[in-house]
Amino acid sequence: MAEKKTTAKKAAVKKAELSLEEQLVALRNDLLEYRKSHAAGELVNPRAITKNRKDIARVMTQLNAKKEAK
C-alpha cells in the first residue's frame, strides 16, 4: 500500500514538471509571436512582451528550484 502512495507522489511530481515545461514552451512561442507582431507594427500593447518575459523567468525559476531539490 505504501508503494502505491509513493508511486502516486512521484507521478504527480513528474506531471507537475511536465505542465511547467509545457507552460514554458507555450510562453516562449507567445513571446516569439509578440516580437514578430511588434516588428510588423501590429502589436497593440508592447508591455505584453515584458510581462511574457517575466512569466518565462518565473516558470524557469520554479523548474530550477525543483531540480535543485532533488
Write a structural description:
The structure is a single chain. By secondary structure, the chain is mostly helical. It has one domain. It has 2 helices and no strands. The protein has helices at 2-40, 47-69. Helix 1 packs antiparallel against helix 2 (47-69). The longest helix has 39 residues, at 2-40. The protein starts with a helix and ends with a helix. 1% of the residues are buried. The model has no long low-confidence stretch (mean pLDDT 86).
Summarize it.
By secondary structure, the chain is mostly helical. It has helices spanning 2-40, 47-69. It contains 2 helices and no strands.
Our estimate of the beta-strand percent is: under 5%
What ranges have pLDDT less than 50 throughout 5 or more consecutive residues? Answer: none
Query: How many separate domains make up the residues?
Result: 1
Total DSSP helices: 2
Principal-axis shape equals: elongated
